[in-house]
Fold:
Amino acid sequence: MADKIIDGFPYIEYHHEELNENEVSQRANSFYESMKTRRSVRHFSSRPIPKSIIESIIKIAASAPSGANKQPWTFVAISNPELKSKIREAAEKEELENYNGRMSKEWLQDLAHLGTDWHKEFLEIAPWLIVVFKKIYDIDVNGNKHNNYYVSESVGLASGFLIAAIHQAGLVTLTHTPSPMNFLTQILNRPENERPFLLLPVGYPAKDALVPKIFRKNLDQISEFKL
Structure:
């Protein structure tokens, strides 16, 4: 079918899979049952993962909506051991300062039950690291700057898609945000219009992996329905 031109812009027909109410409910419940098992994992296996799988995961993340469809993100996937080592060294340097002065006493108390500290060995053990960068603005081939819109919101949505895709692929990850993260820009030689947003180690869990016993809030604690 030919494109439809509306106000000078091309449109295509949206094809929607028609499902009955039971099928919709089954899909929603199935996805929930899968996603509720997702956990932030800090103990990784070094078992390798093909690049093609990481590519598929990133393509899913890039299907997220964005302000004015600007797609203001770059996903840098790293398996190079030397680069991973440099990232770990720089991240631990920042985290050591965080745990020994930058973080408030209350913050440290809130983290205590998770068993975290400044050591980040998973940054070297996990076979892949994916660093999500947000593009504050775009630069065209002539060096001209172009605005992006709702950048943090857009990249946040893409990161959510990315985390869900990792889980659905049968892998695990951890949302790591060492602060500040400027070292990622330097180590990965990113351009001036990009800022590091999130660092995700990606891999299989170690055989003896443990996660804290935590509880998620009930539906009535996080939602309100106006009927």
